[in-house]
Amino acid sequence: MSLRVNRQAFAASLRRIQDAAKSRPDAVARALHPVFRGWAADWEKDVQSRLRGDPLKSRSGRLRGSLQSFVSGSKLDDLKLRLQGGEGVAYAHKQERGGVIKPKNGKYLTIPTRANLSAAGVSRFPSARALIAANPGKTFFRRTDEGKLLLFLNQGVSETIRRAHNAGLPKGGVRAKKGDAVPMFLLVRSVDLPGPDSPTKKAPSRLGFHDTWNAMRARRGADLANLKVGP
C-alpha cells in the first residue's frame, strides 16, 4: 500500500501556491521539501505508535519495520511524497482494508483460539495439520450447538483413543470421549474482516495507514496556508 501526494494535491488547495508555482516553481519546490518531510515523519510516528499499542499487529515487528517514507524530486513537476507500509507482509492489505478471505487450499480457514496463543499472541501450533501431527490420537473435530466447527486437543487423555474420521470433515480428526479437551482452532469457510473494502462490515482502516493520513488533513491545510515561498 502506498499513498502519494503530488503537485495537483496542493495546487488545487491554495490559490496562492498555485500562482507561485507558475512564476517560481523552484522556490515552491524548495519550500515544500521540509513540509513534506515533516508530514512523513509525523505519519510514521503515529502509525508506529498505533501498532505498538496492539500486540496482535506488532508481535513480529515486520509490519512496523515495513513503514517507510520518501520525498523525491528536485523540481515541482516531479516532487512527490510517498508513504509506504505493509510491503512484503502478506496479511497487511487485508488487515488495513478488510474484505472477505477464503482458503486457497482445502475447504476451511483455521483460526487459532485463545488457548492456542502464547502470551505474545503467537500461535503455539501454526496450523491444524501441525497440531494433529504433533499430537497423534489426541485431536478431534466437533461442532458446537451453534454450528461452529472446532478442532480440539485432548490434553488429559490417558488411553488410546479410537480413530474415527468424520464424514465431510477435514481428514486426520479423531473423536475422544475422555480427558481434558481444549479447542485449539476454529474452522470456517471464509472470514469477512471489517474495513472499508468489506461488503458487510464497513469500518475504518484497521491498521490506520489511511486513517492516520486522513486525520492530518487539517494540519496539511494549515501548513500549506502558512507556506513561505522564498525568492
What can you tell me about this protein's structure?
This protein folds into 2 domains: 2-97 and 203-225; 103-189, no CATH class. It is 34% helix and 19% strand. The chain is built from 9 helices and 9 strands. It has helices at residues 7-11, 15-23, 25-52, 55-58, 62-65, 92-97, 128-134, 209-215, 217-225, and strands spanning 2-5, 68-72, 80-84, 99-101, 109-112, 139-143, 149-154, 181-188, 191-193. A 4-stranded antiparallel beta sheet has the order 5-8-7-6, with helices on one face. A 3-stranded antiparallel beta sheet has the order 1-3-2. A hairpin with a 5-residue loop joins strand 6 and strand 7 (149-154). The longest helix is centred in the N-terminal third of the chain and has 28 residues, at 25-52. It is elongated and about 80 Å long. The two termini are 37 Å apart.
Name the helicity range. Answer: 25-40%
Low-confidence stretches: 157-178
Please tally the β strands and state the result. 9
Helix-strand makeup class: alpha+beta
DSSP strand content: 15-25%
- Shape, principal axes of CA atoms: elongated
Indicate the radius of gyration in whole angstroms: 26 Å
Domain count: 2
Biggest β-sheet description:
4 strands, antiparallel
- Sheet with most strands: strand arrangement: 5-8-7-6
- The helix/strand order is EHHHHHEEHEEHEEEEHH
The average pLDDT score comes to 78
Counting DSSP H or I runs of 4 or more residues, the number of helices is 9
The end-to-end distance, rounded to whole angstroms, is 37 Å
